[in-house]
Design a protein that fits this description.
By secondary structure, the protein is an alpha+beta fold. It has a domain at 519-701: Nucleotide cyclase, GGDEF domain (Alpha-Beta Plaits). It is 73% helix and 10% strand. It is built from 26 helices and eight strands. A hairpin with a 2-residue loop joins β2 and β3 (575-580). The longest helix is centred in the middle third of the chain and has 109 residues, at 393-501. The two termini are 41 Å apart.
Length: 702
């Protein structure tokens, strides 16, 4: 499927005033010719500087060389005339031209010159626009710290100016930066601010863009149902807007299809998958009418990927070849890499490993040329899979090592970006707090003066009250001491209850701050269990007996989790979920989870043998374990619940469903962490949405 972060950028560029801030509005096709005619007669004055800049804006995307020439002339003339505003506009225009040409470093230099001049002349609107441009370039370069600082300063200026539309746009830009380093809740908060600003804006199309971005954030968190709801609301607004761009409506159908496809994959439901196909076809029909080749190529690739999961490989190839032809005509190298990646998976599933290798080489070469590490990493993984299928285990191992090395390098880079962003957010908050402290200090000084004047009168009144107060205090202290004993007892009971519901560290945070901040854990082992044939057994038992049987099993599991240091997350019907490595991270969580799973199976078998002798129904259990990143937090405002989210949770559940009763089924990620402690047996691959094939292993024991 298309990367939601790409769709995020696309949606904002379509919906929140396309083009850089400071750029001119769209003008009739004759404007450039008219400006060129005026330039032939314009004397060397400030008006000519403005004409040169305006003309460059009109042609900067189609004739970058000519635009650059006129902007340089504008700079020289403005400097000669001492026309600072005109010079800053020209430097800003040169920054845009450099961006269009892909020269980020030069764009930064030009934007910085424009910003320096605009600071000198106190042009706050111009400063805000250039800061926004700087923030976007820094983000493109991966410099999250400077990107956040630039956007924050821009937002402060637009707030002072009361420009709600551009305030909303900067919130959207900040959301994109935060989402790029997995700060999803913070990104969502920025979009919420944008939504509030736009709620009563007459142009509902802009609000639809923000709702789409809110859907993208939920999509990144694997919260596909919530993403579906936001996409639906955005689509409804766009369909009810008479002058809406049809391309935006097509994009909304595409987003809706992506969400439905993921829901169908999670629930293993063809109903949702078929609904996704309807959405894709609706999107495609609009792109066909618009003769929009890039849009058609995206939909064709999505259709191919969906039919691949339906195992209709011929239809998948039909659409993927259409996408390939379009992207080759457009010389869309990133798009070709995506399409070749999906084609490789289709032909591999059809059993044509040699052809799969050809497509892996194609998209790997493209990834190297354009510097796309994500697809280079995928290529190493696919090379390893293909050579293993051909029996060339030496090459398969070599590529697996390269895959793991690049994966860990990318994780390190991501962590670095995360730390940079945390530093930027901390410094920004620290500066705000310092300003607030200074205001409070001035207010305290003013109040101190008034206090001194009233002090003498207050002292006189205080002496008169003290005598009577001391008499009352003795009586009150006796009653208060008795109440304190009761309060302390109730507080202890409440604390113990809260610690039974939440992890101790999480409970302490909730008591201290009245809220719990979500935390991302890079490596957690998630354990899922459920009972085979539970529904049929439940039909034969009374509700009381059923709950009693489950309670006996889950109490057993609770004690084993406590023994191995795992955190119980929740039970859902007959399913039991726990995790190792949180809320306090550790390096033994995979070994702990596997050890706990083996003991669960062993102790359950003993319990079930006893139940069988007593003539009671027998529960046989499947167990699945996967290791990966999750987001953990507390949901609810009255009935608190500690929960975890992320792809690792979904994968663990799929591993449990693919397991066998009495066995412990683990993923390759977990296997690599426990293979030195437990004997494991490779037992095949699990097909996982957007992750390809995941190797599975049965754990035999110590």
């Amino acid at each position: 499927m298309p990367n939601p972060s790409f769709l995020c950028a696309l949606a904002f560029s379509l919906c929140l005033l396309a083009g850089k801030i400071g750029a001119q509005s769209n003008k009739p096709p004759t404007v450039a010719d008219s400006l060129a005619t005026l330039l032939t007669k314009a004397p060397p004055d400030t008006q000519r500087v403005n004409l040169l800049t305006d003309y460059a804006w009109e042609i900067n995307e189609t004739e970058t060389g000519t635009a650059e020439k006129h902007l340089n002339e504008a700079v020289v003339l403005a400097q000669k005339l001492g026309f600072k505003r005109g010079e800053s506009n020209a430097w800003n225009g040169l920054g845009v031209v450099a961006e269009i040409r892909g020269n980020k470093e030069l764009a930064l230099a030009h934007y910085q010159k424009a910003l320096d001049i605009r600071r000198q002349i106190k042009d706050r609107r111009g400063m805000a626009g250039t800061l926004t441009n700087l923030g976007n370039v820094y983000n493109d370069m991966g410099d999250v710290e400077n990107s956040v600082r630039s956007h924050r300063e821009s937002l402060e200026l637009y707030t002072e100016l009361g420009d709600t539309l551009r305030m909303a746009r900067v919130h959207g830009n900040l959301s994109e930066v935060l989402q790029s380093v997995a700060f999803y809740e913070e990104a969502y908060a920025e979009l919420f601010e944008a939504r509030v600003l736009l709620e009563h804006h007459p142009d509902r199309r802009i609000l639809a863009g923000v709702l789409t971005l809110m859907g993208h954030v939920r999509f990144e968190l694997d919260m596909y149902k919530e993403a579906h709801d936001w996409y639906s609301e955005a689509l409804q607004i766009r369909r009810n807007t008479s002058d809406e761009d049809p391309a935006n409506i097509a994009e909304s159908w595409l987003n809706l299809g992506n969400a439905l496809d993921e829901i169908g994959s999670e629930l293993d439901s063809m109903v949702y998958t078929d609904s996704a196909l309807v959405c894709y076809q609706t999107s495609l029909s609009i792109y066909e009418e618009l003769n929009d080749d890039p849009g058609r190529a995206i939909v064709f690739t999505n259709l191919g990927d969906t039919y691949k999961h339906k195992k209709d490989y011929d239809k998948a190839m039909f659409y993927l070849e259409k996408a390939e032809n379009i992207r080759r005509e457009l010389d869309d190298q990133p798009g070709l890499a995506e399409t070749y990646n999906v084609i490789n998976d289709v032909v591999f599933r059809k059993g044509n490993v040699e052809q799969s290798l050809e497509y892996i080489r194609k998209y790997y070469d493209i990834a190297v040329d354009i510097g796309d590490l994500k697809y280079q990493q995928r290529a190493f993984r696919d090379f390893s899979r293909a050579y293993a299928a051909l029996g060339d285990f030496s090459r398969a191992y070599t590529y697996r090592v390269r895959y793991d090395s690049l994966r860990y390098a990318m994780l390190d880079e991501q962590r670095t970006k995360t730390f940079e962003l945390k530093d930027a957010l901390f410094v920004d908050e620290k500066n705000k707090n310092e300003v607030e402290r200074q205001k409070q200090a001035l207010e305290r000084a003013r109040l101190r003066t008034y206090a001194l004047l009233g002090g003498a009168l207050a002292l006189f009144l205080l002496v008169a009250l003290l005598f009577n107060r001391n008499r009352l205090r003795a009586r009150a202290n006796q009653a208060l001491a008795a109440k304190n004993v009761v309060i302390e007892h109730e507080k202890e009971r409440a604390d113990n209850l809260l610690k039974n519901i939440l992890p101790e560290s999480v409970a302490e945070e909730l008591k201290t701050n009245n809220s719990v901040q979500p935390v991302r854990y890079e490596s957690v082992s998630v354990l899922f269990t459920d009972f085979k044939g539970f529904t049929q057994i439940a039909e034969r038992l009374s509700p009381e007996d059923l709950v009693a049987e489950l309670d006996a099993c889950f109490r057993l599991f609770d004690s084993i989790c406590a023994k191995y240091g795992l955190e119980k997350i929740k039970t859902i019907g007959d399913a039991y979920m726990c995790a190792g490595g949180l809320p306090e991270p550790n390096v033994t969580h995979a070994v702990d989870a596997v050890g706990a799973a083996l003991e669960m199976q062993s102790k359950l078998a003993e319990l079930m043998n006893k139940k069988t002798r007593e003539g009671k129904p027998r529960f046989d259990m499947r167990v699945g374990i996967h290791t990966g990143p999750v987001v953990a937090g507390v949901v609810g405002s009255h009935k608190f619940a500690y929960d975890i989210w992320g792809d690792a949770v979904n994968t663990a559940a799929r591993l449990e469903q693919s397991g066998e009763p009495g066995r412990v089924n683990i993923s390759e990620a977990t296997y690599l962490l426990v293979k030195d402690r437990f004997e494991c047996q490779f037992r095949g691959n699990l097909s996982a949405k957007n992750k390809g094939e995941i190797a599975m292993y049965f754990v035999a024991g110590h």
